[in-house]
Design goal:
This protein is α/β, with parallel strands linked by helices. The chain has ten helices and 14 strands. The strands form three sheets. The chain has a seven-stranded mixed sheet with strand order 1-6-5-4-7-8-9, with helices on both faces. Strands 10, 11, 12, 13 and 14 form a five-stranded antiparallel sheet that branches. The chain has a two-stranded antiparallel sheet with strand order 2-3.
Amino acid sequence: MFHVKLHGQDAMARGADEKLVSRRIKLPRRIIEKPLLQVGKRVLMALFVLCLTVLLVWLDRDGYHDNADDQVDFLDCVYYATVTLSTTGYGDVVPYSDTARLVNILLITPLRVLFLIILVGTTLEVLTERTREEWRLKRWRKNLRDHTVVIGFGTKGRSALQTLLATGLHKEQVVIVDPSSKVIDIANSEGFTGVVGDATRSDVLLRAELQKARQIVIATQRDDTAVLVALTARQLNRGAKIVAAVREEENAPLLRQSGADAVITSASAAGRLLGLSVLSPSAGTVMEDLIQQGSGLDLVERPVNKREVGKGVRETEDLVVSVLRGHRLLAYDDPHASPLQLTDRLISIVRAVPPTSPPVTLPSAE
């Protein structure tokens, strides 16, 4: 029986105070201005129109008539401007001089139209934006499948995602789950779709369409959270590849039992790389280059082509380090690795090249 060893605070737990309503999907979009800023500007524009109308009436107040006391003071000017711009028009304060009526025709009427455009336009924009978001969300749900779900957008999650993007993964095929709205906003600004919420809850993972995902990356900061996420994810999706990171090596077996296909011990891996760099700085540099996709040397997995079937491992075009046969991982010098079979997959080292260029491979080690 395994026990999960806790370590530090979790980025997944920093949103414990998030309300249920905040567990929502945020599609990436170009935000020109913040909504409150847009509303504030329109309110100021409406107030400016109102003040301008009041000023016009006040300057020509002698041309207006008040049925109540036959006098038009400043309050009457504000009152008349308000009811006129809102098209209410009670008729108790009216322009009677030719100048006042001309000003109403040429100036106050256009200001009334502008005032209505500002108010109605704001309402219509809000309704249109909601409709547009609903339509985008429905289309996103319909088209999304075989995507990648990244749980936790911290240092580990970002690094894993950068590696996947370097191998050709498109941002449209990535969904990020994190309990922090600010983190999801950052992900949106980078072009990713995000889901705000606790990934240990099945309803949050369903919002990320995890049941249709092809691969899942669990990059939480706490090992117990990673175990719960792996259990929930495996229940929702039996066929997806689940890769998870843990801090403590003793928690790795429990995470594998929870449904993870591969478990990376972040603390131990960093420690081994440090030790290797101490013994040989050049070897440490090469190892770091291998795990960084898109530059220098890349460690890739590919199928065996028909020309290589029946040949030995050292007769291939690539620098093969391992052969994956079924569920067995054979070293390049394993006698059972050769001859190669059509169903084998090769783990080899290649030279990283731009996606538009033809692949360049290293010569085989003879």
